[in-house]
Amino acid sequence: MSEHLSAATMNAIVDGELETTELARAEAHLAGCLQCSSECLSTGVLKRRVRAAGAKYELPEGLEQRMRRAVAPTATKKPAVWIRWGAVAAVVAVCAALVPFEYSRTRHRAEESALVSEVVDQHIAVLAANAPPQVVSSDRHTVKPWFQGKLPFSFNLPQTLPADVTLDGANLSYLEGRPVAQLLFRIGKHRASVFVEQRGGAAVSAADQAGFHVAGFQTAELEAVAVSDTDRARLTELMQALQAAQ
Question: What is the pLDDT at residue 165?
Fold first, then answer.
């Protein structure tokens, strides 16, 4: 396969719709074509972001059934008019009580899911690009000052990192349009990205996506989210060291 992959083929790859033989040919082409592999990665990123955005305002599954159970009559006899009006009032009360709560909870889950997808996508993009960081250094006294004037906040790096963990450098990046510090680490043979930003966005505690572990923490002023394919325990160890330094 010498010609570039078509947009339809790339969409089929991302959606898992190619037959085994066609998929093998497409993967062989992607392995040797930087342009197609980059476009295929961008297609996957776009699809995940669209799905996450579309889920932000969906009512939670099962809400209608829970409301019906909450106002269902307990007797088999046909209720009197005043009972029916009472049921109507109960429906209104249940809606007033449940909908804001469920909407808030669903929106929080959607925002957290969108953030997880975005940090994983950015980490994969760094791995695929295989380019040096914008600031290349393992010295915290070099990396931290590099962000002065680039970010509206400050953060600390630990004096000592966990065993077999090294700092490769950092990038100035963005999450949902907000400037963040993307700290790049190596945990043994695995690479990790830690995104640090001002507190105020969606919080992430722990998640898994596309073979990557995601972990996070919050302080009074900062939020941090890490992504790596290393063991979760090793990633958590790194995040604990970073949190203790703030």
Answer: 97
Q: Are residues 146 and 238 in the same domain?
A: yes
Q: Which two tokens stand for residue 9?
A: 């083929």
Range of the domain at 195: 132-245
Q: 42: Cβ–Cβ under 8 A, 6 or more apart, which residues?
A: none
CB count, 10 Å around CB of 41?
18
CA–CA distance, 159 with 144 (Å, rounded to integer): 12
CA 103 to chain centroid: 20
Is 109 a domain residue? no
- Please, what's the b/e burial string for 160-188 (b: 16 or more CB within 10 A of its CB; e: otherwise)? ebeeebebbbbbebebeeeebbbbbbbbe
pTM of the model: 0.61
Asked, for residue 166, whether it belongs to a domain, the answer is yes
**In the chain, how many domains are there?**
2
146 lies in the same domain as 237: yes
Cα distances from 149 to residues 146, 194, 220, in angstroms, run: 8, 20, 21
